[in-house]
Amino acid sequence: MQSNPSxxxxxTKSVIFQTAFKxxxxxxxxxxxxxMIAKNAGISKxxxxxxxxxxxxxxxxVLKTVSLDQIKPANWxxxxxxxxxxxxxxxxxxxxxxxxxxxxxxxxxxxxxxxHASEVLKLLDANISLWEKAFExxxxxxQFKDAQGEAIYLLTMLDGxxxxxxxxxxxxxxxxxxxxxxxxxxx
Amino acid sequence: MQSNPSxxxxxTKSVIFQTAFKxxxxxxxxxxxxxMIAKNAGISKxxxxxxxxxxxxxxxxVLKTVSLDQIKPANWxxxxxxxxxxxxxxxxxxxxxxxxxxxxxxxxxxxxxxxHASEVLKLLDANISLWEKAFExxxxxxQFKDAQGEAIYLLTMLDGxxxxxxxxxxxxxxxxxxxxxxxxxxx
Amino acid sequence: MQSNPSxxxxxTKSVIFQTAFKxxxxxxxxxxxxxMIAKNAGISKxxxxxxxxxxxxxxxxVLKTVSLDQIKPANWxxxxxxxxxxxxxxxxxxxxxxxxxxxxxxxxxxxxxxxHASEVLKLLDANISLWEKAFExxxxxxQFKDAQGEAIYLLTMLDGxxxxxxxxxxxxxxxxxxxxxxxxxxx
Amino acid sequence: MQSNPSxxxxxTKSVIFQTAFKxxxxxxxxxxxxxMIAKNAGISKxxxxxxxxxxxxxxxxVLKTVSLDQIKPANWxxxxxxxxxxxxxxxxxxxxxxxxxxxxxxxxxxxxxxxHASEVLKLLDANISLWEKAFExxxxxxQFKDAQGEAIYLLTMLDGxxxxxxxxxxxxxxxxxxxxxxxxxxx
DNA sequence: GATGAATGAGAATTCATTCAT
DNA sequence: GATGAATGAATTCTCATTCAT
Lengths: 187, 187, 187, 187
Hints:
DNA-binding
């Protein structure tokens, strides 16, 4: 009665979670039925209700994770020159867009709808602030007159890039990366 | 007997349309039920089907309007200097974002979902191309080496701005307008 | 206020009737909507309700006519030899099957469903009796031992033929006509 | 714990099926609503969709059974004299009409409508061919000049008989059986 | 824990019918 | 007579949720 060595609970719950996450992100919340989740997770419909109170609850869990899994301006090296750090952050963001497309898509969705659990939106907003702060500090170090303005400018650019990448209108991320690097004199 | 407070057809259809438009744009298509539309429009459920073949048709109609109401790079004056034209287009776009938030939100929705009515997406894409072409030509006239790249860069920026404005993360459009103007040496 | 020389009422009502008749017979009652009738008759939906209380009422009218329009064993010539009359009746029936296919189909439908207005069924049944009587008398004149039995036998055959013709399994009516004629030594 | 009064799945599905079958056969497909089926089967409306994809699917299932349950010209004994076999087939058909009235009524319905599920109609037609072939062979063995014509003649007769039996206009099947037997000199 | 049969509320849609004009 | 906008009940179907096993 303890809990199997193979920790089935953790496993099953996690499988449900991951499945739901992927489906929510690719099809949307409404368009994802419990049946779909169950089928994709390889469990019965009823079992979901052992781990989550209901569909909404499962969504909340996913949203919380999404907001926590946003890339944070990490990889930061206080010893490195600011240009090096700026380059790292931009790379981090662009790689994130490229490889976590559906997480990013999900968070854009959330912002567009706006209606969802404000606590989730708060987490997302907090993360955005984090990036603004990070860029602002770097631009300060780089002697920009309007460091905050430049930070927002850069983030706006990155958001536009994310949007275009997700909706396939990018002419590719690589050229834009180059453009940004050259704008800020990186590498 | 002049003009009834509730003159028929034109009015009712338009009420349905406007209601649906607003609801689609704020809640999304799937999340908006016919009941919601009917209730908000103050009509019976069945009446919608007098004016539109089905929900999809209503969506299409809305989408068509959305795509037609996209700002096109007009206000173009071949006699005017390219900088003047560039300024006009940027102004046009920014004003659009500010005043047609619903429409812009809707088209962002569509791009994020991607799945819907490919014909509409085509229209939207065509419009995007229009803007790219317009900016590209201006940048050519302005002697930019990579006119096309610059056009895309600018549009990406504007998209990011739109996204942030819609999701309330903008620090306002005005400062960004100034920034863009100064970047391109306008006014 | 009298009634126009072009007797519009009679006309319109008759158009509605004929349209409904054809549609009921080809698509079935449930499958025929008031809208269809109106469109095909070239009138508005509302107008139908001036001439008929409701859809059911229109059906009843059609059914009554159908039952009255059943071919009756007419073309009967008391002077002619019984074989001649037998031939005429068989021809009458077969021609009817061939040319009034959808009336016949309609009456078969009614018999299969059985549930409809018993008064209509009574009319149909009465007509069947008429045929039985007619054939029976002819077979009596032709000295058949079991004239009634033979009459029913022949009618059963004709019904089978009608059924097959309507459902396309006939190998054609012509050969069967020959067969029946030869069976009874006609022509 | 032996066999519950309401053992699940198999039972429920079968109850739905039987209910639908009976209702389809007596009222017709369109005239039978899911609500009717559910009410008559004593289940919720939704449950039907657990076992059948939709109403059409349920119909198909019923039709499949109908077409499979059509009497096939079996009971055939190659050793027996052809007259014996002919007698058996006629008996088989007549017994079928008498005892599987629902099924026969249903297949008549289908033929009259014609529109439905062409695959089912094909099955029914194939079965009809089977009978034609069987009778034809017997008539060949019995030295009929036009064996095929005679086969169709007999089947037409049997179809008429079925029709009349179902719509209650038969004067009973027994006398007709005698008549057919005597026509072919059986027993 | 796990299953899936069963339910019922709600969604989209159709359609006979009414009624103001 | 004639129109067609408007209604509301009914229909098919979906799906989150419950519950007996």
